[in-house]
Design brief:
7-stranded antiparallel sheet; 9 strands; two-stranded antiparallel sheet; Pdz3 Domain; 2 domains
Length: about 375
């Protein structure tokens, strides 16, 4: 089931991205030869006008064949050259290339907004004017490595529903009452009841003091999280703000990752590939549809930002080539551009295989 959900999400994200290219190309009169669902081999196709709409065997997204996107003699100087992507003004080419990225940002905005309308998980400390919280719980946000909580199997997104030790218990569970209870019962066994999706569990642990000192702790970060529902207009406004906030955070994180890689300090520990995402999708699905929409929005933003990187084979790389052509006042040799994009494609595939291997190694 997790794999099926992930494939559906991937299909939607890629098709939305490709539809951005498709729509803008059509608007500028550029010939679009094919819009494919999935990747070849082709199962069947239907031609409507000049464009073939195909269903393909590998359900990992989709593609658009835009006439002249990969320059050759036919689309540069052939009989239909006026409708070739390569012969359109640079600003139109830039819009077509950026349209897929823009479509992913729009999708993220819509998903966040719809989530806020239906009930999106949010910290009660970030209450938005006009919102109404329901199903408020104390949620584990993160678990420290080798901490008492990790040793007994407590995981992020577990909802803490009961806390007791001997005859003592926490009546009103929140971050402050739990912290006080743990501090008071340092060195004693504490029983914690939790809810993980629809599964109820209980663990026993002993709060410990870190080597650096301080109060007894179990090694978790926690927050009061509830489902925030907003009116339609407010939801779209706040959805836009949330999209911008996540975009900035993701861009900074990616920049830091690349910079550390250049400095030789990079690590795959914070990088997740397709195999890892399947597991995360499964966890998000357990917590409800709103969680799944939020996670899909996050992936959509990540896909958009990655495509903005000025690397061959990515939209950002093609935009960078356009900038070079604009500065030098002439086209980059089609052969050079095609070789660069092909090399970039193979490098990206190699990186994906490496990340996938790392994902599998973490599971073993």
């Amino acid at each position: 089931m997790n794999i099926l959900i992930f494939l559906v999400i991937l299909l939607v994200l890629v098709l939305v991205h490709e539809f951005g290219h498709f729509f803008s190309a059509k608007k500028f009169g550029i010939r679009v030869d094919e819009f494919g669902f999935g990747f070849p081999p082709k199962i069947f196709g239907i031609k409507r006008g000049e464009t073939e709409y195909s269903i393909n065997a590998l359900p990992f997204g989709g593609f658009v064949k835009i006439f002249g996107e990969n320059p050759d003699e036919e689309n540069t100087n052939g009989p239909d050259k006026e409708r070739s992507f390569i012969n359109k003004p640079k600003w139109q080419q830039a819009i077509v290339l950026f349209a897929g990225i823009f479509a992913n940002f729009l999708l993220a905005w819509f998903l966040f907004s719809f989530g806020l309308m239906s009930g999106l998980p949010m910290s009660t400390s970030n209450e938005i004017k006009g919102s109404a919280f329901s199903d408020v719980n104390l949620v584990v946000v993160s678990v420290l490595p080798s901490s008492p909580a990790e040793v007994v199997g407590l995981k992020p997104w577990d909802k803490i529903v009961s806390v007791k030790s001997g005859d003592g218990f926490v009546a009103d569970i929140n971050p402050e009452t739990l912290k006080s209870f743990i501090t008071y019962h340092g060195g004693q066994e504490v029983e914690i009841g939790y809810l993980r999706g629809e599964d109820v569990g209980e663990i026993k642990l002993i709060p410990t003091v870190a080597s650096s000192g301080g109060n007894p702790a179990i090694g978790i970060a926690m927050d009061q999280i509830g489902l925030a529902k907003l009116p339609v207009l407010t939801a779209f406004y706040e959805g836009g703000r949330l999209t911008w906030s996540v975009t900035k955070g993701t861009a900074v994180g990616l920049y830091t990752l690349i910079l550390e890689g250049i400095r030789g300090k990079g690590s795959f520990a914070s990088v997740t590939g397709p195999v890892g995402l399947v597991g995360i999708v499964g966890e998000a699905y357990k917590f409800g549809f709103a969680y799944l929409m939020s996670f899909t929005a996050l992936i959509s933003i990540n896909l958009a930002i990655i495509n903005l990187i000025p690397f061959p084979a990515l939209d950002g790389g093609r935009l960078f080539f356009l900038l070079i052509e604009k500065i030098k006042g002439s086209r980059i040799s089609p052969g050079v551009a095609n070789i660069a994009n092909m090399a970039g494609f193979f490098i990206l595939i190699a990186l994906m295989l490496l990340v996938t291997y790392h994902d599998i190694a973490k599971l073993l």
